[in-house]
Specification:
Length: 71
């Protein structure tokens, strides 16, 4: 899952949405910041445009914020 063309990845996202998933986190990092920003802008923008997920509401980090870790 989550590999291939933008359309194929959108299909994977739709399959998870059908199972009740309402939030996904993608990592667009690469070896350098310019490539990471390009990936985020190009691929992230295309995925948002063709999926039915609304854009996430930015959350303000607090000192109490902790990452969720699943083992």
């Amino acid at each position: 899952p989550f590999a291939g063309t933008v359309e194929q990845i959108a299909g994977d996202i739709a399959a998870y949405a059908d199972l009740g998933v309402s939030e996904l986190i993608f990592d667009f990092r690469s070896e350098n910041i310019a490539e990471s920003l390009d990936r985020l802008g190009r691929q992230g923008g295309q995925l948002l445009a063709i999926t039915r997920f609304p854009p996430a509401t930015p959350r303000r980090a607090t000192r109490e914020s902790r990452p969720i870790v699943i083992h």
